[in-house]
Amino acid sequence: MPEGTLFPEEPSFAPGTPLAERMRPKSLDEVVGQDEVVAVLKGFLARGELPSLVLWGPPGCGKTTIARLLSAHLNAQFVSFSAVLSGVKEAKTVMDEAKRLRQATGRKTVLFVDEVHRFNKAQQDAFLPFLETGDIVLVGATTENPSFELNRALLSRVKVYVLKPLSPEVMEGLLRKALTDRQRGLGSMELSVDARALARIVSLAAGDARVAYTLLELAAELAGPKGVVNPELVERVAQRRLALYDKEGEEHYNLISALHKSIRNSDPDAALYWLARMLEGGADPRFIARRLLRVASEDVGLADPRALEQAAAAALAVEHVGLPECDLALAQAAVYLALAPKSNALYAGYGKAREVVQQKEPYPVPLHLRNPVTPLMARLGYGQGYVYAHDTEEKVAAMECLPEELAGERFYQPSGEGFEQRIRERLADIARRKAKHGGTKNSGS
């Protein structure tokens, strides 16, 4: 077998072998869509070495294929291991065997761990001794951000390479190759495939070659030899596209971040798109409702006091109606928030107040603001100097309500957006009223 070749020149597959498996690249030169990463890995192989590494990328982008081809180039024992199906005990057995193989023959073992992030950070420590001695070359694959999912000790001993989703052009090229390849693909069926059908498969697969091959194979089976694959047939086998969405992984946070930031940027169309991506992908509507409540206060605030009402109403609809009926309530709230005037004055004001509370000592409540609920408290000065605002002509008392050490501090400073323009005017009016009765250190607009 030529160096770097995973399959023999005349491949023989067991009946029923999926098209995706049959079409796996036979060498690194056949890997498409990951040129930068492949070039770097070829550089290592040219020097006869390969560091332990983690391939991070979406499903179907080539992680497993690249791992197997690296092993073939090194003439190493290849052991594939799934963190989903097995645990650390099985991994240690494999690594102990790898140690014995290396001591007996000098031959290394490439241990491919799919979904390596499924091991918790304590379990990942089991790999460390074998990495230190060089008994194994660890090639991990993950769809999750290694920065969050791998512990520091393991992360410091591996190189991380990011694989991209396959582009539509690359995906179409793979499908056309499968349609003409008579050895491994569907060439012997002599299918007639509508260009629109190919485009639809590419769209449905969303960068996942495995999904694309599966859809094409199912459509070919329905069409039969010399049959026609058209968009209608593709829709029949696809039935309904599952949105690209992982309710527990990084994509979950990427999508909710996109929704939040689209609303903040007053883009209702983008807000509806990201909302639909989440709901169609199976997101918990209560999670979205909670984020909309946050957006209402953080990014709209008192520039439009009704924003929080809209978000709260949507949250109530989610609890009482549920999916699918609550989708429009969430859409209404998202669009309302996107179109509302924006102000982060509340967010900034509370943040400043919280910072003062965290960094400075807990100043005592001024005596005049304390209730003299017992005679002793009254003798100690509780309540002395307090002015009941309703008893004043201006309905505002000229007294400081912050601790003496913070007198004059301003936390909330409204913008000129929406209703906050009226709030600025109201604060200026309050300052004038206080000044009329002797002033206060905490006046002004």
Short summary of the structure?
The protein is an alpha/beta fold and 445 residues long. It has 4 domains: 34-162, P-loop containing nucleotide triphosphate hydrolases (Rossmann fold); 168-238, Helicase, Ruva Protein, domain 3, CATH 1.10.8.60; 250-339, Zinc Finger, Delta Prime, domain 3 (Up-down Bundle), CATH 1.20.272.10; 363-436, no CATH class.
What average pLDDT do the residues reach? 86
What string, H for helix and E for strand, traces the elements in order?
HHEHEHEHEHHEHEHHEHHHHHHHHH
Q: Gap between N and C termini, in Å?
A: 81 Å
For the biggest β-sheet, the strand order reads 2-3-4-1-5
Please give the largest β-sheet: 5 strands, parallel
Q: Could you say what the CATH topology of the largest domain is called?
A: Rossmann fold
Defining key terms:
445 residues; alpha/beta; Rossmann fold; Helicase, Ruva Protein, domain 3; Zinc Finger, Delta Prime, domain 3; five-stranded parallel sheet; disordered N terminus; disordered C terminus; nucleotide-binding; DNA binding; ATP hydrolysis activity; ATPase_AAA_core; AAA+_ATPase
Describe this structure in words.
- There is one protein chain.
- The chain is of the alpha/beta class and 445 residues long.
- The chain folds into 4 domains: 34-162, Rossmann fold; 168-238, Helicase, Ruva Protein, domain 3 (Orthogonal Bundle), CATH 1.10.8; 250-339, Zinc Finger, Delta Prime, domain 3 (Up-down Bundle); 363-436, no CATH class.
- The chain contains 19 helices and 7 strands.
- The chain has a 5-stranded parallel β-sheet, sandwiched between helices. Strands 6-7 form a two-stranded parallel sheet.
- The longest helix has 18 residues, at 88-105.
- It is elongated.
